[in-house]
Protein backbone atom coordinates (compact mmCIF):
# COMPACT_ATOMS: atom_id res chain seq x y z
CA UNK A 1 0.00 0.00 0.00
CA UNK A 2 2.69 2.49 1.02
CA UNK A 3 6.21 2.39 -0.35
CA UNK A 4 8.75 4.91 0.84
CA UNK A 5 12.37 4.72 -0.25
CA UNK A 6 15.17 6.99 0.88
CA UNK A 7 12.87 9.86 1.67
CA UNK A 8 14.65 13.13 2.38
CA UNK A 9 13.05 16.44 3.15
CA UNK A 10 14.92 19.57 4.05
CA UNK A 11 13.64 23.08 4.61
CA UNK A 12 15.37 26.40 4.17
CA UNK A 13 14.89 28.56 7.17
CA UNK A 14 16.07 32.10 7.55
CA UNK A 15 17.29 33.36 10.85
CA UNK A 16 17.98 36.96 11.74
CA UNK A 17 16.99 39.94 9.59
CA UNK A 18 15.29 39.69 6.27
CA UNK A 19 18.26 40.98 4.34
CA UNK A 20 21.30 39.95 6.32
CA UNK A 21 19.79 36.82 7.82
CA UNK A 22 21.54 33.55 7.30
CA UNK A 23 19.93 30.75 5.41
CA UNK A 24 20.05 27.46 7.17
CA UNK A 25 19.03 24.08 5.87
CA UNK A 26 17.11 21.93 8.31
CA UNK A 27 16.81 18.26 7.52
CA UNK A 28 13.37 17.30 8.76
CA UNK A 29 13.48 13.77 7.40
CA UNK A 30 16.66 11.87 6.55
CA UNK A 31 16.75 8.72 4.49
CA UNK A 32 13.54 7.16 5.70
CA UNK A 33 12.40 3.95 4.03
CA UNK A 34 9.50 1.67 4.86
CA UNK A 35 6.66 -0.30 3.38
CA UNK A 36 3.17 -0.77 4.72
CA UNK A 37 0.95 -3.58 3.44
CA UNK A 38 -2.76 -3.17 2.73
CA UNK A 39 -4.81 -3.58 5.89
CA UNK A 40 -1.94 -2.99 8.29
CA UNK A 41 -2.22 -0.67 11.29
CA UNK A 42 1.06 1.05 11.99
CA UNK A 43 1.81 3.25 14.97
CA UNK A 44 4.08 6.09 14.00
CA UNK A 45 5.77 7.53 17.05
CA UNK A 46 8.24 10.23 17.80
CA UNK A 47 8.63 13.29 19.96
CA UNK A 48 7.40 16.65 18.69
CA UNK A 49 9.57 17.93 15.88
CA UNK A 50 10.95 14.48 15.12
CA UNK A 51 9.79 14.46 11.50
CA UNK A 52 6.46 12.70 12.02
CA UNK A 53 4.23 15.35 10.54
CA UNK A 54 6.65 16.04 7.69
CA UNK A 55 6.40 12.37 6.71
CA UNK A 56 2.61 12.51 6.96
CA UNK A 57 2.48 15.65 4.84
CA UNK A 58 4.56 13.96 2.16
CA UNK A 59 2.29 10.91 2.27
CA UNK A 60 -0.81 13.08 1.93
CA UNK A 61 0.68 14.97 -1.02
CA UNK A 62 0.94 18.28 0.83
CA UNK A 63 4.73 18.36 0.71
CA UNK A 64 7.07 17.49 -2.11
CA UNK A 65 10.14 15.64 -0.80
CA UNK A 66 13.63 16.87 -1.50
CA UNK A 67 14.53 13.41 -2.77
CA UNK A 68 13.37 9.84 -2.52
CA UNK A 69 10.61 7.71 -3.94
CA UNK A 70 7.10 7.57 -2.49
CA UNK A 71 4.19 5.58 -3.86
CA UNK A 72 0.86 4.99 -2.22
CA UNK A 73 -1.47 2.52 -3.88
CA UNK A 74 0.48 2.98 -7.09
CA UNK A 75 0.19 6.78 -7.08
CA UNK A 76 2.74 9.45 -6.34
CA UNK A 77 1.00 11.61 -3.73
CA UNK A 78 2.08 15.09 -4.81
CA UNK A 79 1.51 14.44 -8.50
CA UNK A 80 -2.15 14.91 -9.37
CA UNK A 81 -2.84 15.54 -5.70
CA UNK A 82 -6.57 16.16 -6.12
CA UNK A 83 -7.22 12.74 -7.58
CA UNK A 84 -4.98 11.11 -5.03
CA UNK A 85 -6.53 12.63 -1.90
CA UNK A 86 -9.92 11.21 -2.86
CA UNK A 87 -8.60 7.85 -1.67
CA UNK A 88 -7.49 9.11 1.70
CA UNK A 89 -9.27 9.67 4.95
CA UNK A 90 -7.84 11.70 7.79
CA UNK A 91 -8.68 12.67 11.32
CA UNK A 92 -6.57 15.30 12.97
CA UNK A 93 -7.62 15.11 16.58
CA UNK A 94 -7.09 18.81 17.19
CA UNK A 95 -9.13 19.94 14.20
CA UNK A 96 -12.57 19.25 12.95
CA UNK A 97 -13.76 19.02 9.38
CA UNK A 98 -17.38 19.55 10.42
CA UNK A 99 -19.22 22.78 9.67
CA UNK A 100 -19.24 24.63 12.92
CA UNK A 101 -22.75 26.11 12.86
CA UNK A 102 -24.64 23.40 11.04
CA UNK A 103 -26.07 20.03 12.10
CA UNK A 104 -23.61 17.15 11.86
CA UNK A 105 -25.84 15.47 9.29
CA UNK A 106 -25.32 18.35 6.85
CA UNK A 107 -21.54 18.12 7.09
CA UNK A 108 -21.70 14.38 6.48
CA UNK A 109 -24.16 14.71 3.59
CA UNK A 110 -21.87 17.19 1.87
CA UNK A 111 -19.15 14.52 1.77
CA UNK A 112 -21.29 12.47 -0.57
CA UNK A 113 -20.83 15.23 -3.13
CA UNK A 114 -17.23 15.98 -2.17
CA UNK A 115 -16.17 12.41 -2.93
CA UNK A 116 -18.95 11.58 -5.39
CA UNK A 117 -19.93 8.52 -3.39
CA UNK A 118 -22.72 6.49 -5.05
CA UNK A 119 -25.93 7.30 -3.09
CA UNK A 120 -26.62 3.68 -2.11
CA UNK A 121 -23.13 3.14 -0.84
CA UNK A 122 -23.24 6.42 1.06
CA UNK A 123 -26.52 5.54 2.76
CA UNK A 124 -25.17 2.13 3.73
CA UNK A 125 -21.98 3.57 5.21
CA UNK A 126 -23.77 6.31 7.07
CA UNK A 127 -26.16 3.77 8.56
CA UNK A 128 -23.32 1.46 9.62
CA UNK A 129 -21.25 4.25 11.19
CA UNK A 130 -24.25 5.78 12.89
CA UNK A 131 -24.84 2.44 14.59
CA UNK A 132 -21.18 1.71 15.41
CA UNK A 133 -20.38 5.18 16.73
CA UNK A 134 -23.83 5.89 18.12
CA UNK A 135 -24.13 9.11 16.13
CA UNK A 136 -27.92 9.03 16.14
CA UNK A 137 -28.52 11.24 19.18
CA UNK A 138 -26.52 14.16 17.79
CA UNK A 139 -26.84 14.02 14.00
CA UNK A 140 -29.12 17.02 14.24
CA UNK A 141 -26.83 19.00 16.57
CA UNK A 142 -24.51 21.72 15.27
CA UNK A 143 -20.84 20.79 15.61
CA UNK A 144 -20.21 23.69 17.97
CA UNK A 145 -22.56 22.14 20.53
CA UNK A 146 -20.95 18.68 20.55
CA UNK A 147 -18.80 17.28 23.33
CA UNK A 148 -15.23 16.49 22.33
CA UNK A 149 -15.97 12.78 22.27
CA UNK A 150 -19.03 13.23 20.08
CA UNK A 151 -17.11 15.53 17.75
CA UNK A 152 -14.33 13.00 17.39
CA UNK A 153 -16.82 10.24 16.59
CA UNK A 154 -18.47 12.41 13.96
CA UNK A 155 -15.07 13.30 12.50
CA UNK A 156 -14.14 9.63 12.32
CA UNK A 157 -17.32 8.87 10.41
CA UNK A 158 -16.60 11.83 8.14
CA UNK A 159 -13.17 10.45 7.35
CA UNK A 160 -14.50 7.05 6.35
CA UNK A 161 -17.79 7.62 4.52
CA UNK A 162 -16.10 7.51 1.12
CA UNK A 163 -14.37 4.15 1.75
CA UNK A 164 -10.80 5.42 1.73
CA UNK A 165 -7.95 2.93 1.21
CA UNK A 166 -5.72 4.70 3.67
CA UNK A 167 -6.64 6.41 6.92
CA UNK A 168 -4.42 8.88 8.75
CA UNK A 169 -5.20 9.21 12.43
CA UNK A 170 -3.40 11.94 14.28
CA UNK A 171 -3.99 11.93 18.03
CA UNK A 172 -7.51 10.51 17.66
CA UNK A 173 -8.06 10.16 21.40
CA UNK A 174 -6.40 13.31 22.69
CA UNK A 175 -8.35 14.95 25.52
CA UNK A 176 -10.94 12.17 25.81
CA UNK A 177 -11.97 10.22 28.87
CA UNK A 178 -11.22 6.52 29.21
CA UNK A 179 -14.62 5.33 27.97
CA UNK A 180 -14.58 7.58 24.92
CA UNK A 181 -11.04 6.52 24.07
CA UNK A 182 -11.95 2.88 24.25
CA UNK A 183 -14.92 3.38 22.00
CA UNK A 184 -12.80 5.05 19.36
CA UNK A 185 -10.16 2.34 19.52
CA UNK A 186 -12.81 -0.34 19.12
CA UNK A 187 -14.23 1.43 16.13
CA UNK A 188 -10.86 1.80 14.42
CA UNK A 189 -10.05 -1.85 15.07
CA UNK A 190 -13.42 -2.84 13.66
CA UNK A 191 -13.12 -0.74 10.52
CA UNK A 192 -9.62 -2.00 9.94
CA UNK A 193 -10.69 -5.61 10.23
CA UNK A 194 -13.93 -5.33 8.28
CA UNK A 195 -12.90 -2.98 5.50
CA UNK A 196 -9.18 -3.62 5.18
CA UNK A 197 -8.46 0.07 5.62
CA UNK A 198 -4.76 0.68 6.11
CA UNK A 199 -4.21 2.89 9.13
CA UNK A 200 -1.28 5.11 9.95
CA UNK A 201 -1.62 6.22 13.55
CA UNK A 202 0.40 9.00 15.11
CA UNK A 203 -0.19 9.51 18.78
CA UNK A 204 1.39 10.20 22.10
CA UNK A 205 -1.03 7.83 23.78
CA UNK A 206 0.76 4.52 23.80
CA UNK A 207 -2.33 2.63 24.85
CA UNK A 208 -3.75 3.53 21.43
CA UNK A 209 -0.71 1.91 19.88
CA UNK A 210 -0.77 -1.15 22.12
CA UNK A 211 -4.44 -1.72 21.41
CA UNK A 212 -4.42 -1.10 17.68
CA UNK A 213 -1.04 -1.55 16.10
CA UNK A 214 1.00 -4.70 15.86
CA UNK A 215 3.76 -2.68 14.30
CA UNK A 216 5.43 0.55 15.36
CA UNK A 217 7.84 2.87 13.65
CA UNK A 218 9.79 5.30 15.78
CA UNK A 219 11.29 8.40 14.30
CA UNK A 220 13.53 10.94 15.94
CA UNK A 221 15.69 13.73 14.56
CA UNK A 222 14.33 12.88 11.13
CA UNK A 223 15.62 9.32 11.08
CA UNK A 224 13.73 6.09 11.51
CA UNK A 225 15.00 4.50 14.73
CA UNK A 226 12.88 1.41 14.94
CA UNK A 227 10.49 -0.46 12.70
CA UNK A 228 9.04 -3.68 14.05
CA UNK A 229 6.48 -5.13 16.39
CA UNK A 230 5.85 -4.03 19.94
CA UNK A 231 6.93 -7.22 21.82
CA UNK A 232 10.29 -7.19 20.03
CA UNK A 233 10.75 -3.56 20.92
CA UNK A 234 10.11 -4.37 24.55
CA UNK A 235 12.40 -7.40 24.52
CA UNK A 236 15.27 -5.57 22.87
CA UNK A 237 15.06 -2.22 24.51
CA UNK A 238 12.75 -2.64 27.45
CA UNK A 239 14.35 -1.25 30.53
CA UNK A 240 15.21 -3.63 33.34
CA UNK A 241 12.67 -4.45 36.04
CA UNK A 242 12.90 -2.24 39.05
CA UNK A 243 12.90 -3.11 42.71
CA UNK A 244 11.66 -0.32 44.97
CA UNK A 245 12.75 -0.85 48.56
CA UNK A 246 11.42 1.14 51.53
CA UNK A 247 13.95 0.73 54.31
CA UNK A 248 13.04 1.29 57.96
CA UNK A 249 15.45 4.23 58.00
CA UNK A 250 17.46 5.94 55.28
CA UNK A 251 20.43 3.58 54.75
CA UNK A 252 23.90 4.92 55.43
CA UNK A 253 25.00 3.52 52.11
CA UNK A 254 22.22 2.59 49.69
CA UNK A 255 24.57 0.63 47.48
CA UNK A 256 24.04 -3.13 47.60
CA UNK A 257 26.70 -5.38 46.07
CA UNK A 258 25.17 -7.24 43.10
CA UNK A 259 22.32 -4.70 42.53
CA UNK A 260 22.34 -1.71 40.20
CA UNK A 261 21.36 1.47 42.02
CA UNK A 262 18.87 3.64 40.13
CA UNK A 263 17.89 6.26 42.66
CA UNK A 264 17.84 6.90 46.36
CA UNK A 265 15.53 9.27 48.15
CA UNK A 266 15.43 9.10 51.94
CA UNK A 267 14.37 5.60 52.98
CA UNK A 268 13.17 4.74 49.44
CA UNK A 269 15.81 3.22 47.17
CA UNK A 270 15.27 1.89 43.66
CA UNK A 271 17.40 -0.81 42.08
CA UNK A 272 17.38 -2.28 38.59
CA UNK A 273 17.66 -5.97 37.87
CA UNK A 274 16.90 -8.56 35.21
CA UNK A 275 15.42 -12.01 35.63
CA UNK A 276 13.67 -13.27 38.77
CA UNK A 277 13.05 -10.99 41.72
CA UNK A 278 13.81 -13.42 44.59
CA UNK A 279 17.58 -12.90 44.75
CA UNK A 280 17.48 -9.07 44.53
CA UNK A 281 14.87 -9.01 47.30
CA UNK A 282 17.02 -11.28 49.46
CA UNK A 283 20.07 -9.09 48.86
CA UNK A 284 18.18 -5.92 49.76
CA UNK A 285 16.57 -7.29 52.92
CA UNK A 286 19.97 -8.59 54.04
CA UNK A 287 21.41 -5.11 53.56
CA UNK A 288 19.28 -3.26 56.13
CA UNK A 289 15.86 -3.59 57.87
CA UNK A 290 13.13 -3.29 55.23
CA UNK A 291 9.54 -2.14 55.62
CA UNK A 292 8.22 -2.82 52.13
CA UNK A 293 9.33 -3.87 48.64
CA UNK A 294 7.64 -3.40 45.26
CA UNK A 295 8.63 -4.75 41.87
CA UNK A 296 7.96 -2.38 39.00
CA UNK A 297 7.57 -3.78 35.49
CA UNK A 298 8.92 -1.73 32.60
CA UNK A 299 6.24 -0.20 30.45
CA UNK A 300 6.26 0.61 26.79
CA UNK A 301 6.18 4.29 27.56
CA UNK A 302 9.36 4.08 29.58
CA UNK A 303 11.00 2.07 26.82
CA UNK A 304 10.17 4.65 24.24
CA UNK A 305 11.23 7.48 26.48
CA UNK A 306 14.55 5.75 26.93
CA UNK A 307 14.90 5.44 23.19
CA UNK A 308 14.26 9.16 22.65
CA UNK A 309 16.41 10.30 25.51
CA UNK A 310 19.32 8.02 25.22
CA UNK A 311 19.43 7.55 21.48
CA UNK A 312 19.47 3.81 22.27
CA UNK A 313 19.25 2.87 18.66
CA UNK A 314 21.32 3.64 15.69
CA UNK A 315 19.30 4.11 12.54
CA UNK A 316 17.55 1.01 11.31
CA UNK A 317 19.74 -0.91 8.94
CA UNK B 1 -34.37 28.20 -9.02
CA UNK B 2 -33.89 24.45 -8.75
CA UNK B 3 -34.33 24.02 -12.49
CA UNK B 4 -31.66 26.63 -13.05
CA UNK B 5 -29.34 24.89 -10.63
CA UNK B 6 -29.96 21.60 -12.40
CA UNK B 7 -29.17 23.12 -15.77
CA UNK B 8 -25.92 24.55 -14.46
CA UNK B 9 -25.21 21.18 -12.87
CA UNK B 10 -25.52 19.39 -16.19
CA UNK B 11 -23.37 21.98 -17.92
CA UNK B 12 -20.78 21.63 -15.18
CA UNK B 13 -20.75 17.88 -15.41
CA UNK B 14 -20.05 18.12 -19.10
CA UNK B 15 -17.05 20.33 -18.24
CA UNK B 16 -15.85 17.85 -15.58
CA UNK B 17 -16.73 20.19 -12.70
CA UNK B 18 -18.36 18.78 -9.60
CA UNK B 19 -21.28 21.23 -9.86
CA UNK B 20 -23.45 19.28 -7.43
CA UNK B 21 -20.84 19.83 -4.77
CA UNK B 22 -20.56 23.56 -5.37
CA UNK B 23 -24.33 23.96 -5.26
CA UNK B 24 -24.44 21.95 -2.04
CA UNK B 25 -21.62 24.01 -0.50
CA UNK B 26 -23.34 27.26 -1.46
CA UNK B 27 -26.60 25.98 0.03
CA UNK B 28 -24.94 25.05 3.34
CA UNK B 29 -23.13 28.33 3.50
CA UNK B 30 -26.41 30.12 2.82
CA UNK B 31 -28.08 28.27 5.67
CA UNK B 32 -25.32 28.86 8.18
CA UNK B 33 -25.93 32.62 7.89
CA UNK B 34 -29.27 32.04 9.60
CA UNK B 35 -27.60 30.43 12.62
CA UNK B 36 -27.10 33.73 14.43
CA UNK B 37 -30.31 35.78 14.31
CA UNK B 38 -29.18 38.15 17.07
CA UNK B 39 -26.02 39.07 15.16
CA UNK B 40 -28.10 39.68 12.06
CA UNK B 41 -30.51 41.90 13.96
CA UNK B 42 -27.82 44.10 15.51
CA UNK B 43 -25.92 44.23 12.22
CA UNK B 44 -29.08 45.41 10.54
CA UNK B 45 -29.68 48.05 13.16
CA UNK B 46 -26.12 49.36 12.76
CA UNK B 47 -26.53 49.39 8.99
CA UNK B 48 -29.71 51.37 9.31
CA UNK B 49 -28.27 53.85 11.79
CA UNK B 50 -25.28 54.66 9.58
CA UNK B 51 -27.55 54.63 6.56
CA UNK B 52 -29.70 57.35 8.14
CA UNK B 53 -26.58 59.32 9.01
CA UNK B 54 -25.30 59.13 5.46
CA UNK B 55 -28.67 60.17 4.04
CA UNK B 56 -28.64 63.23 6.30
CA UNK B 57 -25.07 64.19 5.27
CA UNK B 58 -25.72 63.75 1.56
CA UNK B 59 -28.98 65.70 1.65
CA UNK B 60 -27.23 68.51 3.53
CA UNK B 61 -24.60 68.52 0.80
CA UNK B 62 -27.32 68.98 -1.81
CA UNK B 63 -28.89 71.90 0.03
CA UNK B 64 -31.17 73.57 -2.46
CA UNK B 65 -29.31 72.33 -5.53
CA UNK B 66 -31.45 70.07 -7.68
CA UNK B 67 -28.46 68.00 -8.78
CA UNK B 68 -24.86 67.24 -7.84
CA UNK B 69 -22.69 65.50 -10.43
CA UNK B 70 -25.74 64.01 -12.12
CA UNK B 71 -27.27 62.79 -8.83
CA UNK B 72 -30.67 64.08 -7.75
CA UNK B 73 -31.50 63.95 -4.01
CA UNK B 74 -33.62 60.85 -4.70
CA UNK B 75 -30.63 59.25 -6.45
CA UNK B 76 -28.46 60.06 -3.45
CA UNK B 77 -30.89 58.46 -1.00
CA UNK B 78 -31.13 55.35 -3.18
CA UNK B 79 -27.33 55.30 -3.48
CA UNK B 80 -26.85 55.19 0.30
CA UNK B 81 -29.56 52.54 0.58
CA UNK B 82 -27.79 50.38 -1.99
CA UNK B 83 -24.37 50.74 -0.38
CA UNK B 84 -25.81 49.83 3.02
CA UNK B 85 -27.64 46.91 1.43
CA UNK B 86 -24.54 45.58 -0.35
CA UNK B 87 -22.23 46.19 2.59
CA UNK B 88 -22.56 42.74 4.16
CA UNK B 89 -23.13 40.77 0.97
CA UNK B 90 -20.02 42.18 -0.73
CA UNK B 91 -17.96 42.16 2.51
CA UNK B 92 -17.06 45.81 1.88
CA UNK B 93 -15.58 46.21 5.35
CA UNK B 94 -13.13 43.42 4.67
CA UNK B 95 -12.89 39.67 4.74
CA UNK B 96 -10.19 37.57 6.39
CA UNK B 97 -11.64 34.04 6.31
CA UNK B 98 -9.11 32.55 3.92
CA UNK B 99 -6.24 34.28 5.70
CA UNK B 100 -7.32 32.75 8.99
CA UNK B 101 -7.53 29.31 7.42
CA UNK B 102 -3.98 29.62 6.15
CA UNK B 103 -2.55 31.07 9.35
CA UNK B 104 -4.21 28.52 11.59
CA UNK B 105 -3.10 25.67 9.37
CA UNK B 106 -6.70 24.58 8.78
CA UNK B 107 -5.96 24.76 5.08
CA UNK B 108 -4.21 21.40 5.42
CA UNK B 109 -7.46 19.56 6.08
CA UNK B 110 -9.15 21.42 3.24
CA UNK B 111 -6.43 20.43 0.82
CA UNK B 112 -7.13 16.78 1.64
CA UNK B 113 -10.40 17.10 -0.25
CA UNK B 114 -10.52 16.25 -3.94
CA UNK B 115 -12.21 19.42 -5.16
CA UNK B 116 -11.09 22.77 -6.50
CA UNK B 117 -10.05 24.90 -3.58
CA UNK B 118 -10.92 28.19 -5.26
CA UNK B 119 -14.20 26.80 -6.56
CA UNK B 120 -15.23 25.56 -3.13
CA UNK B 121 -14.45 28.89 -1.50
CA UNK B 122 -16.27 30.76 -4.22
CA UNK B 123 -19.33 28.56 -3.78
CA UNK B 124 -19.29 29.13 -0.04
CA UNK B 125 -18.95 32.88 -0.49
CA UNK B 126 -21.80 32.88 -3.01
CA UNK B 127 -24.07 31.23 -0.45
CA UNK B 128 -22.94 33.63 2.25
CA UNK B 129 -23.43 36.69 0.02
CA UNK B 130 -26.88 35.57 -1.14
CA UNK B 131 -28.02 35.00 2.43
CA UNK B 132 -26.61 38.31 3.61
CA UNK B 133 -28.30 40.11 0.74
CA UNK B 134 -31.64 38.54 1.60
CA UNK B 135 -31.30 38.97 5.35
CA UNK B 136 -29.82 42.42 5.50
CA UNK B 137 -29.88 43.86 1.97
CA UNK B 138 -33.54 43.35 1.17
CA UNK B 139 -34.59 44.43 4.65
CA UNK B 140 -32.53 47.63 4.41
CA UNK B 141 -33.93 48.44 0.97
CA UNK B 142 -37.48 47.87 2.19
CA UNK B 143 -36.94 50.14 5.18
CA UNK B 144 -35.36 52.78 2.94
CA UNK B 145 -38.34 52.60 0.60
CA UNK B 146 -40.69 53.13 3.53
CA UNK B 147 -38.67 55.87 5.24
CA UNK B 148 -37.23 57.94 2.45
CA UNK B 149 -38.51 56.47 -0.81
CA UNK B 150 -36.37 54.47 -3.21
CA UNK B 151 -35.72 54.65 -6.93
CA UNK B 152 -36.09 51.25 -8.56
CA UNK B 153 -34.76 49.79 -11.83
CA UNK B 154 -37.20 50.12 -14.70
CA UNK B 155 -39.05 47.12 -16.06
CA UNK B 156 -38.13 43.46 -16.15
CA UNK B 157 -35.09 44.14 -18.34
CA UNK B 158 -33.85 46.83 -15.95
CA UNK B 159 -34.23 44.49 -12.97
CA UNK B 160 -32.63 41.57 -14.80
CA UNK B 161 -29.59 43.51 -15.97
CA UNK B 162 -29.13 45.21 -12.59
CA UNK B 163 -29.27 41.92 -10.73
CA UNK B 164 -26.84 40.40 -13.22
CA UNK B 165 -24.56 43.33 -12.55
CA UNK B 166 -24.90 42.78 -8.79
CA UNK B 167 -23.88 39.14 -9.28
CA UNK B 168 -20.85 40.21 -11.28
CA UNK B 169 -19.96 42.83 -8.67
CA UNK B 170 -20.00 40.12 -6.01
CA UNK B 171 -17.86 37.78 -8.15
CA UNK B 172 -15.38 40.51 -9.00
CA UNK B 173 -15.14 41.55 -5.36
CA UNK B 174 -14.75 37.95 -4.24
CA UNK B 175 -11.84 37.44 -6.63
CA UNK B 176 -10.18 40.56 -5.27
CA UNK B 177 -10.75 39.52 -1.65
CA UNK B 178 -9.40 36.04 -2.35
CA UNK B 179 -6.35 37.55 -4.01
CA UNK B 180 -5.63 39.83 -1.07
CA UNK B 181 -6.11 36.97 1.40
CA UNK B 182 -3.56 35.00 -0.61
CA UNK B 183 -0.88 37.20 0.95
CA UNK B 184 -1.23 34.94 3.98
CA UNK B 185 0.77 32.27 2.14
CA UNK B 186 3.81 34.55 2.30
CA UNK B 187 3.31 36.73 5.31
CA UNK B 188 2.32 35.85 8.85
CA UNK B 189 0.84 39.33 9.26
CA UNK B 190 -1.05 39.71 6.03
CA UNK B 191 -3.82 41.40 8.01
CA UNK B 192 -2.11 44.76 7.48
CA UNK B 193 -2.10 44.27 3.74
CA UNK B 194 -5.77 43.40 4.06
CA UNK B 195 -6.60 46.60 5.90
CA UNK B 196 -4.95 48.70 3.22
CA UNK B 197 -6.71 46.73 0.47
CA UNK B 198 -10.15 47.13 2.04
CA UNK B 199 -9.63 50.86 2.52
CA UNK B 200 -8.65 51.16 -1.13
CA UNK B 201 -11.61 49.04 -2.21
CA UNK B 202 -14.06 51.09 -0.10
CA UNK B 203 -12.89 54.31 -1.68
CA UNK B 204 -12.50 53.12 -5.25
CA UNK B 205 -15.65 51.00 -5.61
CA UNK B 206 -17.90 53.89 -4.65
CA UNK B 207 -18.78 52.78 -1.17
CA UNK B 208 -17.60 55.93 0.65
CA UNK B 209 -18.96 58.33 -1.95
CA UNK B 210 -20.47 57.97 -5.42
CA UNK B 211 -17.56 57.89 -7.87
CA UNK B 212 -19.36 60.62 -9.85
CA UNK B 213 -18.53 63.05 -7.01
CA UNK B 214 -14.78 62.64 -7.55
CA UNK B 215 -12.74 64.95 -9.84
CA UNK B 216 -12.76 63.92 -13.49
CA UNK B 217 -9.08 62.92 -13.55
CA UNK B 218 -9.58 60.58 -10.56
CA UNK B 219 -12.64 59.03 -12.17
CA UNK B 220 -10.79 58.32 -15.39
CA UNK B 221 -7.96 56.83 -13.35
CA UNK B 222 -10.40 54.54 -11.53
CA UNK B 223 -11.95 53.53 -14.83
CA UNK B 224 -8.73 51.61 -15.50
CA UNK B 225 -9.07 49.60 -12.27
CA UNK B 226 -11.41 46.74 -11.38
CA UNK B 227 -12.82 48.59 -8.35
CA UNK B 228 -15.83 50.35 -9.95
CA UNK B 229 -16.94 46.90 -11.17
CA UNK B 230 -17.19 45.76 -7.57
CA UNK B 231 -20.14 48.06 -6.80
CA UNK B 232 -20.32 51.44 -8.51
CA UNK B 233 -21.35 49.91 -11.85
CA UNK B 234 -24.30 48.17 -10.23
CA UNK B 235 -25.42 51.37 -8.49
CA UNK B 236 -25.32 53.32 -11.76
CA UNK B 237 -27.32 50.63 -13.52
CA UNK B 238 -29.87 50.58 -10.69
CA UNK B 239 -30.25 54.38 -10.84
CA UNK B 240 -30.63 54.31 -14.61
CA UNK B 241 -27.55 56.50 -15.10
CA UNK B 242 -26.38 54.06 -17.74
CA UNK B 243 -28.64 53.23 -20.63
CA UNK B 244 -28.82 51.61 -24.04
CA UNK B 245 -25.77 49.82 -25.34
CA UNK B 246 -23.73 51.41 -22.54
CA UNK B 247 -25.36 48.88 -20.20
CA UNK B 248 -23.85 45.99 -22.11
CA UNK B 249 -20.47 47.72 -22.11
CA UNK B 250 -20.59 48.12 -18.32
CA UNK B 251 -21.59 44.48 -17.85
CA UNK B 252 -18.85 43.41 -20.26
CA UNK B 253 -16.23 45.36 -18.30
CA UNK B 254 -17.46 43.80 -15.04
CA UNK B 255 -17.30 40.31 -16.53
CA UNK B 256 -13.85 40.92 -17.98
CA UNK B 257 -12.43 42.15 -14.66
CA UNK B 258 -14.03 39.20 -12.87
CA UNK B 259 -12.32 36.76 -15.23
CA UNK B 260 -8.98 38.55 -14.97
CA UNK B 261 -9.07 38.65 -11.16
CA UNK B 262 -10.23 35.04 -10.89
CA UNK B 263 -7.35 34.06 -13.16
CA UNK B 264 -4.95 35.97 -10.95
CA UNK B 265 -6.46 34.42 -7.83
CA UNK B 266 -5.88 30.99 -9.33
CA UNK B 267 -2.30 31.87 -10.13
CA UNK B 268 -1.61 33.24 -6.65
CA UNK B 269 -3.25 30.19 -5.08
CA UNK B 270 -1.09 27.84 -7.15
CA UNK B 271 2.05 29.75 -6.20
CA UNK B 272 1.00 29.86 -2.55
CA UNK B 273 0.32 26.13 -2.46
CA UNK B 274 3.66 25.42 -4.09
CA UNK B 275 5.23 27.46 -1.33
CA UNK B 276 3.41 25.34 1.23
CA UNK B 277 4.55 22.19 -0.58
CA UNK B 278 8.17 23.21 -0.53
CA UNK B 279 8.43 25.07 2.72
CA UNK B 280 5.86 23.35 4.90
CA UNK B 281 2.88 24.84 6.66
Automatic annotation (TrEMBL), chain A:
GO terms for molecular function: ATP binding; ATP hydrolysis activity. It holds the Pfam family ABC_tran. Keywords: ATP-binding, Nucleotide-binding, Transport. Residues 2-246 form the ABC transporter domain. PROSITE patterns: ABC_TRANSPORTER_1 (PS00211), ABC_TRANSPORTER_2 (PS50893). This is ABC transporter ATP-binding protein. It comes from Deinococcus phoenicis.
TrEMBL record, chain B:
Signal peptide: none annotated. Coiled coil: none annotated. The keyword Membrane applies. It comes from the Bacteria. The chain crosses the membrane at residues 41-64, 76-96, 133-150, 156-176, 196-218, 247-269. InterPro entries: ABC-2_transporter-like. Keywords: Membrane, Transmembrane, Transmembrane helix. This is ABC transporter permease. It comes from Deinococcus phoenicis.
Amino acid sequence: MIEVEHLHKSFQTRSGGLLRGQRRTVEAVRDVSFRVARGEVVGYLGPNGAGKSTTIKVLTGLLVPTSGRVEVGGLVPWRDRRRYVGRLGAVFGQRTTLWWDLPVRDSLDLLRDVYRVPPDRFRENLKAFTALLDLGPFLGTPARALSLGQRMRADLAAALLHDPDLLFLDEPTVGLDVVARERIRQFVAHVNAEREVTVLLTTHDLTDVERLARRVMIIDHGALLYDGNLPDLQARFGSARELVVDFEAPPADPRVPGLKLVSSEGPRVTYAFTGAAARPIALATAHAPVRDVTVREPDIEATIRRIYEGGLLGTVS
Amino acid sequence: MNAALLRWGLLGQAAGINARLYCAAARLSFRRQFAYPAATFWGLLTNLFFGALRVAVLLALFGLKPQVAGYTPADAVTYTGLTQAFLAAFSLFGWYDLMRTVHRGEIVTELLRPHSFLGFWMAQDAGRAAAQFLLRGVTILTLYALLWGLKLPEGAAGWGLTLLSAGLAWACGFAFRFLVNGAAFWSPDAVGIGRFAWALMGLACGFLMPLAFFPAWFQSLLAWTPFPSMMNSTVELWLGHVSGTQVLRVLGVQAAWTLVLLGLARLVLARGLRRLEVAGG
